[in-house]
Design goal:
The protein has 320 residues and is mostly beta strands. It has 2 domains: 115 residues, Immunoglobulin-like, CATH 2.60.40; 154 residues, Endonuclease - Pi-scei, Chain A, domain 1. It is built from 5 helices and 24 strands. The strands form 8 sheets. The chain has a 5-stranded mixed β-sheet. A 4-stranded antiparallel β-sheet has the order 1-4-7-6. The protein has a 3-stranded antiparallel β-sheet with strand order 10-21-15. A hairpin with a 5-residue loop joins strand 6 and strand 7.
């Protein structure tokens, strides 16, 4: 008799049979989010549930550097312990893939476990639009925002997430980063600019072309920290991070500095609440399966790669 194995704890199943890829979403929004767990049972074709009589095998096939796997070979229970330091050091969304095989006398069935582990601009930031600078919190759906790669683009969606003082205290990796006025040249930015640590800044420098084959690259703000012009900012009342989404990934002007629009990759989507994700999926149904995210507007560097571009950021002293 044939059978499938099924995950019993509520993961979302997809794939060619509808039940062969099991997806878990986790966002690193608090210090206590470290473990993803589940339980597999054998489901004989016809009816009934049971454990695979010859047990289960689990193997991490991608992303093993981002955590440790534990499992029970007889019950199908597993836990993946996320290495938060490794995740945050990577500077980007990550996906861990685990294969799970159940065996009985009739054969073996193998499924995949996909763990999507998420990380924008802050309130008051001025966004360049066709009608002039507008605070990000006042932008409306349909407003035309100036972009670096062509005509102004209409805003398709705006999201906001408040990070409380308690969350910032528990997880310093969420603390905002402040870029001093004129850090990248006159008017770039025109005023001090506050962004999330993962928000990517466009850097244009010959070193990028030398090391990465692209003159312009996108670098997470945390990869540009220099304790002078780009520093972690205090936020005693918490911080509101805004997400501005277009039909494609764009470079927009925030306080005159070219930075990225929201990129709805798997990792970023996990940072959103259920209602917000549902709203976004209604507008962009192609994102539901995690395969419809647009290409990034420029090559994206990881934080450690940005060390090669440190001379691109003038390290001048700024007032505290």
């Amino acid at each position: 008799m044939g059978y499938n194995i099924s995950e019993t704890t509520g993961a979302t199943g997809s794939g060619t049979s509808g039940v062969d890829t099991w997806t878990f979403d986790v966002g690193l929004t608090g210090a206590d989010v470290t473990t993803v767990s589940g339980d597999f049972n054998e489901v004989p074709i016809g009816s009934g549930w049971s454990e695979a009589s010859r047990g289960y095998e689990f193997h991490v096939t991608s992303g093993s550097e981002f955590g440790d796997l534990e499992y029970n070979p007889w019950t199908g229970e597993f836990e993946f312990h996320v290495d938060r330091d490794a995740m945050l050091a990577s500077g980007s969304d990550q996906t861990i893939v685990i294969s799970v095989s159940g065996r009985d006398s009739s054969g073996t069935d193998t499924d995949s476990i996909v763990i999507n582990v998420t990380i924008c601009v802050a309130r008051g930031t001025l966004i360049d639009t066709e009608t002039g600078p507008v605070p990000v919190e006042d932008l409306q759906i349909g407003d035309s925002v100036r972009t670096l790669d062509g005509p102004a683009r209409p805003v398709r969606w705006i999201g906001c997430r408040h990070v409380s003082p308690r969350e910032l205290s528990a997880d310093p990796s969420l603390r905002p980063i402040r870029i001093a006025a004129d850090t990248f040249g006159p008017g770039q930015p025109a005023r001090d600019l506050t962004v999330s640590p993962q928000h990517r800044i466009l850097v244009d420098d010959w070193r990028a072309e030398l090391f990465f084959g692209a003159r312009q690259v996108l670098v997470p703000a945390k990869g540009l920290l220099n304790d002078l012009t780009i520093r972690t900012a205090p936020a005693p009342d918490g911080v509101d991070y805004f997400h501005v989404l277009f039909d494609r990934h764009e470079i927009m002007l925030t306080e005159g500095l070219p930075t990225e629009s929201f990129h709805p990759g798997d990792y970023a989507l996990r940072e959103l609440g259920d209602e917000t994700r549902a709203e976004l999926f209604k507008l962009f149904p192609e994102l539901v399966d995690g395969i419809g995210a647009p290409e990034t507007a420029r090559m994206v560097l990881r934080p450690w790669e940005s060390a090669l571009l440190q001379d691109s950021v003038p390290a001048r002293k700024v007032p505290s």
